[in-house]
Amino acid sequence: TLSLASSGLTRCGGAALSASGGTIRLDGVDAQGGTAGGLVLLDATRADLRGNWITGSGPALVAAGGSQVEATFNRWRADPALWVECGTGARVRLGFGEHVAAPCAGSP
Which residues of the chain, if any, have pLDDT below 70? Predict the structure, then answer.
């Protein structure tokens, strides 16, 4: 379990944060990733992301292996913004203040 508020993850060579399983809560975090992107969530990680600024050379958010993400008021400054492995059941639910396209269109 990891909870960060009003923090910064900077000068990261790979991803700003990589998690395999567990629970993540980021609230007001500046996450500057490197070549792997901003946040990489694998193996059924559960994440609550609120008001973060995510950058990187790769995707701003990778959700794979059944990871579940709740996102509200984040700013995704990478291309692509979201990379979600929909076939594994990974989901990103976009809440108020999100300005990116919803991933996994047509999935439950």
Answer: 106-108
pLDDT of residue 65: 97
Q: Residues 4, 26: contact at Cβ < 8 Å?
A: yes
Report the Cα 79 to chain-centroid distance in Å: 13
Contact status, residue 52 vs residue 77, Cβ threshold 8 Å:
no
CA proximity to 15, closest of 44, 35, 45 = 35
Token readout for 95 is 């809440």
Signed CA dihedral, 73, 61, 108, 28: sign only = negative
Q: Of 97, 103, 57, 47, which Cα lies nearest the Cα of 77?
A: 57
